[in-house]
Amino acid sequence: FERDEVLKAIERSLECPVCLGTLTPPLAVCCNDHCVCSSCGKALEECPTCRTKMANNVKYPVVLDNILYEIPRKCEFSEHCKVFMPGPELKEHMKICLYRLISCEILSCSWKGEFITLYEHVKTNHQDLLIENGNVTFTDFSVDEPYYSVKLIS
Q1: Which of 64, 83, 87, 151 might form a disulfide with 75, Cβ 3.0–4.6 angstroms?
Q2: What CA dihedral angle connects 55, 56, 59 and 60, to 10 degrees?
Q3: Residue 68 DSSP SS3
Q4: How many CB atoms lie within 10 A of CB 136?
Q5: CA gap 137, 91 in Å, rounded
């Protein structure tokens, strides 16, 4: 076997049959020891692989969790993001990924898109609300007044 073939075989065997991503611990396990991510298993009554009942409180080797936490995986937004890193680091990356999906927070706007396109969206659709490279000073601010929010985009 070539190294790449071995890695692909491992990746296939660690694939969640529900989300098709790499299994994310803790795992949900069926009575026949098939695994799914716990988030995928929450809604399941039966195993997607063998259709047996999902087991409760099944113990499995801690080493499996350790391997799954450390195995590098693609960013969820991998259509554009090429980041590939271990689970804990990837979880932090996805909170700030330029390609994460967000919604426009302007009340009358229903736009949704990638974070990296937010500035262009605001510039195009909300020009009157955009302050570029300027200083903003709030005076007479009161918690009893209607709430306004300021978001900084760098």
Answers
A1: 83
A2: 40
A3: helix
A4: 7
A5: 35
Predicted pLDDT of residue 147: 56
| Cβ pair 81, 99 in contact under 8 A | yes
DSSP 8-state symbol, 116: G
Q: How much is the pLDDT for 141? A: 60
Residues 6+ apart with CB under 8 A from 29: 35, 54, 55, 58, 60
Which residue type, as a one-letter code, is found at position 71?
I
| Residues 80-102 pLDDT 10s | 999 988 888 988 999 999 999 99
pLDDT in tens, 127-149: 888 777 766 665 566 666 665 56
Separation CA 123–CA 145 (nearest Å): 27
- On whether the CB atoms of residues 34 and 49 are closer than 8 A, the answer is yes
* Percent of the chain residues past pLDDT 90, beyond the cut: 34
Radius of gyration for the chain, computed over Cα atoms and rounded to the nearest angstrom: 22
In sequence order, which residues have a C-beta less than 8 Å from that of residue 80 and are 6 or more positions away?
Answer: 99, 114
- Domains, in order of start, for the chain: 3-60 (3.30.40.10)
